[in-house]
Design goal:
With 272 residues, this protein is α/β, with parallel strands linked by helices. Helices cover 44% and strands 17% of the residues. The longest helix is centred in the C-terminal third of the chain and has 18 residues.
Length: 272
């Protein structure tokens, strides 16, 4: 099932978290993960650069599958804000959480509804940050102004060989609005808690919010238990989902290399 597992780089951050990010990517590669999902807005805008740096020396880089997105821009001064991540984690371990500002204060919301005319420049910038000439997939991320134009530009980039596949990503309501942009998306990426529309059933289905699934289905059984128990429960549910959904892949987001290792090692022992 490892070939159907995608490491989600939502938490991949440069700045003070670069060493943590390096541990995450090295752990993912050691566990056999070769598929990575990233976006210009992830990691306060530092995820693509960080992933590109970490994969640059990887001897089998040609076997890596990279997916990025267009439609959500990173926060202003994100590269500077990235240096606050680890100090905040340290403070959270020694000071009662309720006395600290919410992490959202340190993570400004990314801006959606990007102008579709910026698709080409955005994709080329993503390729530059990732250190590749061609990206395996680009997905429209949430809503954009003039989605039809965005779809036209993505299709042109695919014809030119800059992008191999195109698709849609985000909450289901937003994805449904963007179907006019890419009527037959090759990839449909939505929350695991949602059912894809029947009209898009031919797409490769990729699901995220795996931890939300755990909370919805088995939180009472794992509440207060060790991290190992949580990872095992999550792997069991994930394996059942993958067995029942042959065209699906699972996106696993985490900032903990240990959690990633526990989850993948358990998943690899389960029947496919």
């Amino acid at each position: 099932m490892i070939d159907r597992l995608i490491f989600g780089c939502h938490n991949l951050t440069g700045g003070s978290s670069f060493l943590r990010s390096r541990a995450l990517i090295h752990t993912a590669l050691d566990l056999g993960i070769r598929r990575f999902d990233v976006a210009p807005s992830y990691g306060l805008g530092t995820a693509e650069n960080t992933l590109g740096r970490l994969l640059d020396k990887y001897s089998e880089k040609a076997k890596i599958e990279l997916t990025t997105k267009f439609g959500v821009t990173p926060p202003r001064h994100g590269a500077l804000l990235a240096w606050t991540r680890e100090p905040y984690r340290l403070l959270r371990n020694i000071i009662p959480t309720q006395t600290l500002p919410s992490p959202r204060v340190l993570t400004p919301p990314a801006a959606a509804s990007t102008d579709a005319t910026e698709v080409r420049s955005s994709v080329y910038l993503s390729c530059q940050r990732l250190g590749v000439d061609c990206v395996d997939a680009v997905l429209l991320h949430e809503r954009v102004y003039n989605p039809h134009e965005a779809g036209v530009q993505l299709a042109a980039l695919k014809r030119e060989g800059v992008v191999r596949r195109i698709g849609l990503s985000g909450h289901l309501a937003n994805v449904a609005e963007m179907v006019s942009a890419i009527p037959t998306p090759e990839i449909l990426q939505i929350s695991i808690l949602q059912q894809p529309p029947p009209a898009l059933g031919q797409s490769e289905l990729r699901v995220f919010n795996v931890f939300s699934m755990l909370a919805a289905q088995c939180e009472p059984a794992t509440k207060g238990k060790q991290e190992t128990s949580v990872a095992e429960a999550l792997a069991l549910i994930s394996a059942e989902f993958l067995r029942n959904t042959p065209n699906a892949s699972l996106i696993f987001n985490t900032s903990s290399a240990r959690r990633l290792m526990l989850f993948v090692r358990t998943l690899s022992t389960l029947p496919s």
